[in-house]
C-alpha cells in the first residue's frame, strides 16, 4: 500500500513539474499536454489498482466525462481577459467561482446519467 502512495506522488509530481517547466519553453506543447487526459488515465489506473472495483471505476470515468466540459468554465474569464481588461488574478478567481457553479451542474447531470 505504501509503495502505491509513493508511486502516485512521484508520477504526479514528475508530470506537473515537467509541464510547468515546458510551459516556459514551448507554451503550445505544454498546453496540449496539460489538456490531455493524463491525470484521468493515471487516476483511473491507480484507483482501480487500489480498490479493484470495476463498477466504481466505471462510475468514476463517467463522472470525469461529465466534468470535462464543465471544467472548461474555469477558462472562460481568460478568453475575455483582454477584451474586458481583466488581470490574471481576476480571471483566476472568476474561473474558480465558475468552477463552483459548474460543480452543482456536474452533480445534477451525474444523477441523471
TrEMBL record:
Record flagged with keyword Transmembrane helix: yes
Annotated TM spans: 5-23, 29-49, 61-80, 86-105
Protein name (record): Membrane protein
Membrane is among the record's keywords: yes
Keywords from the UniProt entry: Membrane, Transmembrane, Transmembrane helix
